Amino acid sequence: MLLRLLARLALVRVTAAYAVIVTCVTVALYVLGPQVHDRVISHVSTNLHNLSHGHIRTLLDSAFVVDDGPMYVWLPGLVCLLAIAELIWGGIRLTVAFAVGHIGATILVAAGLTAAVELGWLPVSVSRATDVGMSYGATAALGSLTAALPRRWRAVWIGWLLAAGVGVVAVGRDFTDVGHAVALALGMLVSTRFGRPAHWTPVRFAMLGVAAAFGYLVLASTDMVVATAAGLAGAAVAECAYRARVRRRSEPEVDVTAAAPQRNAVEA
Questions:
Q1: Which residues cross the membrane (predicted)?
Q2: How many CB atoms lie within 10 A of CB 217?
Q3: d(CA 121, CA 93)
Q4: In this structure, what is the dihedral angle of CA atoms 213, 214, 216, 221, given to the nearest 10 degrees?
Q5: 231: closest CA among 157, 122, 151?
């Protein structure tokens, strides 16, 4: 029994290790009290102040400090999302997707915020905004599942998620929402280089459902109504585009070279 459990955990060892570390950090910050908690959050936050002062390590440390409410609310969904990505792609490719999404989105958002502050579009106070957690990496992991899905449903999946992310950004205009949309796109792009995924099973499809629900909640947390409306519209457009492309491919091609002699014969 124990050996079987260990064998199954070995299949998701990256997810298990990350979950253990995040749990330990979260519990430790809770035990140490609010003052230590706030100090740590300020120290590892990937805001403009820390990054401009050369605190590059925050790009790594911030992924292990989650400040999104009670752990029992987000940890099960996060574990399910990372686990299905690891089962499908393996631990190394999951790590790549998570890192590209977390670090890439953070850097791109920081560059955008820097430009906005310099141009006077945003107040200087935004440079000290709190920015920690797993949401960019988790959203990238969600995006990385795109290339592993059956081809029939990829267009709907892409249209739904991208439209939802863009819709939230358009309404909320929050830098975190921008980061989620960027991380999602990065996850989708990097997954195209991952090669062949592992096979799907009924259990893995069930895990995908839970993972998609959790990832969608992270992506659309600012405005669920707008995200849902935009996502449905994006999915509908993507489905129509997919069907039109399939219809064009199924239409028989006219052999012009074969038809030409027949036309010449009739004219003669």
A1: 12-32, 71-89, 96-117, 129-148, 155-172, 225-242
A2: 13
A3: 38
A4: 130
A5: 157
Contact 117, 109 (CB under 8 A): no
DSSP tag of 121: S
Under 8 Å between Cβ of 113 and 179: no
**pTM of this prediction exceeds 0.70:** yes
pLDDT-based confidence at 52, cuts 50/70/90? confident
DSSP three-state, residue 140: helix
**pLDDT value for 262:** 54
**What CA–CA distance (Å, rounded) separates 14 from 137?**
13
Report whether pLDDT(228) > 80.
yes
Find the farthest-apart pair of alpha carbons in the chain and give their distance in angstroms, rounded: 97
In terms of Cβ atoms closer than 10 Å to its own Cβ (0-12, 13-18, 19+), residue 37 is middle
Q: Which two tokens stand for residue 255?
A: 């052999």
DSSP for 2-69 reads HHHHHHHHHHTHHHHHHHHHHHHHHHHHHHH-HHHHHHHHHHH---HHHHHTT-TTHHHHGGG---SS
Could you tell me what percentage of the chain is helix, strand and coil, using 3-state DSSP and rounding each to the nearest 5? 80, 0, 20
H or E segment and range at residue 268 = none
Q: Report whether 173 contacts 150 (CB < 8 A).
A: no
